[in-house]
Amino acid sequence: xxxLVTGGAGFIGSCFVRLALQNAxxxxxxxxxxxxxxxxxxxxxxxxxxRYRFQKADLCxxxxxxxxxxxxKPDAVVHFAAESHVDRSILSPQPVFETNLRxxxxxxxxxxxxxxxxxxxxxxxxxxxxxDAPLEADENFPLQPSSPYxxxxxxxxxxxxxxxxxxxxxxMVTRASNNYGPYQFPEKLIPLMISNALEDKPxxxxxxxxxxxxxxxxxxxxxxxxxxxxxxxxxxxxxxxGNRSVANRWVIEQILAITGKPASLMxxxxxxxxxxxxxALSSAKLSKETGWSPQMDFExxxxxxxxxxxxxxQWVRDVKSGEYQSYYARNYDHRASELxxxxx
Length: 344
Ligand code: NAD
Ligand code: DAU
Hints:
This protein is of the alpha/beta class. Helices cover 43% and strands 17% of the residues.
């Protein structure tokens, strides 16, 4: 099977590419714009793999995409490419609109013209918004996105499902919870806290730090996507959760314990605007239809992730050497000064 992957140079996409190629009959074409989040180093292990090909491409270029489909003729498309970070979407919503909405539209249009095989639109639990305990969202839960990022994902989910209903395109939508693991850009909670802790820098906790996220090891997510590609039903939505809902503050304390750093590194900063308090998902439908369940225990996965960042300090230095410093200042300086760096 030939799979066209979008955004395969990012965190989850690169894991998917590595995992999917373990099947000797799979071929991958990876198209990616290589934004700040896309990094070909994430796929360095595949340099000599004859079943893997990379092509630089921007989803906002409809003609370019049509050409790629003309040449590639994939059996399936797995669509990861997105502006994926909530804080950046709050600072600069425009690229989020362009890639997540227009880019997804362009992709669907290029596929419609070519009638290619299955399409997985990789989406997020954030589309359900914040849920009071003990609620868990199933796939029929109302959409209540809070940020430009989650609103763009909710919109693109509906667009993809609209192409199923109207044009009978074999579309499936997946909604995963918070991923963690190797190669995650150090703007997201876990890699940011690990890399700051390893450098003895402050760990910026938004608000009271009692927001709850459900943590999913990235390989578990990618195994779920492969199972859905094989056994999922067209036109369906599948939640993918890690079964491990915990407060941010607890996660940060675990990272401090694993890295052997003091709690005094934790620094309260002002909260994210529109910050969702709690996400929680039911993945019962996915487990029932494919037999999938998350395999990684969170404590073990977190230790492995800390080890990975410890042993990949050059990767961390490289990804932090681009526009990262200016993003970091834009996102954190005002938060820290607003609260006058109250140490917790
Ligand atoms: P990421 O930011 O690490 O990677 C995104 C990739 O998309 C990068 O390689 C980037 O270069 C590429 N890209 C961005 N704009 C593009 C464009 N216009 N054209 C082509 N390529 C472009 O993201 P991630 O964390 O790996 O997330 C992948 C997908 O999974 C996203 O759709 C995200 O919404 C979804 N998701 C992420 C999580 C999570 O916890 N990270 C959870 C659930 C769902
Ligand atoms: O739920 C799935 C989503 O998870 C994905 O769709 C997104 O692509 C992904 O970025 C992630 O979104 P979150 O906003 O939940 O992830 P983030 O790592 O940015 O933040 C996790 C929690 O940690 C959130 O409650 C905000 C908090 N946080 C985050 C950062 C970066 C902090 O307290 N301090 C920080 O510096």
